[in-house]
Amino acid sequence: MRTILAIAAGTAFLAAISAPIFAADMTVKGELVDVACSTSKGAGGKGADHAVCALRCATRGQPVGILTDDAIYVVTGDWAANKNAKLIDFVAKRVEVTGEVSEKDGQKMMSVKSLKLAK
């Protein structure tokens, strides 16, 4: 039994440390949203009508993401540091973001390398 548990723990550890190896750079366009509101309120959790609430949540350090047509990419890393300080000017706006994309427990994440307003 101990051997099986040791093998399972070792496999889980290797999977956890190898996840960043499989990350890939990509560029996405979408709206910078408060993740909680966007997922729980649907259409009411995005756009100009929700900008004030999204900004309030972002300044509190709530997770922020890029809402695309098919997914939400939660912003991680330096751009999300200090309660999203670098992202505040872009909340509720359409952006073009390039970064390293990974996935954990079904949630897509992006470590942003560059971000600009989308045309």
Can you give a write-up of this model?
By secondary structure, the chain is of the alpha+beta class. The chain has helices at 2-18, 35-41, 51-59, 81-84, and strands at 24-34, 64-67, 72-76, 94-104, 107-117. It has a single domain (24-117), classed as Beta Barrel (OB fold (Dihydrolipoamide Acetyltransferase, E2P)), CATH 2.40.50. The longest helix has 17 residues, at 2-18. The protein starts with a helix and ends with a strand.
Task: Flag low-confidence runs.
Answer: none
What is the overall pLDDT average? Answer: 85
Q: Which CATH class applies here?
A: Mainly Beta
Strands ordered across the widest β-sheet: 1-2-3-5-4
At CATH level 3, the topology is OB fold (Dihydrolipoamide Acetyltransferase, E2P)
Number of domains: 1
What is the overall silhouette? globular
Number of strands: 5
Radius of gyration: 17 Å
**Major sheet, described briefly?**
5 strands, mixed, barrel
Q: What order do the SSEs take from the amino end to the carboxyl end, as H and E?
A: HEHHEEHEE
CATH architecture: Beta Barrel
Helix content: 25-40%
Content of β-strand = 35-45%
Sheet/helix structural class: alpha+beta
- Alpha plus pi helix count: 4
- Termini separation: 59 Å
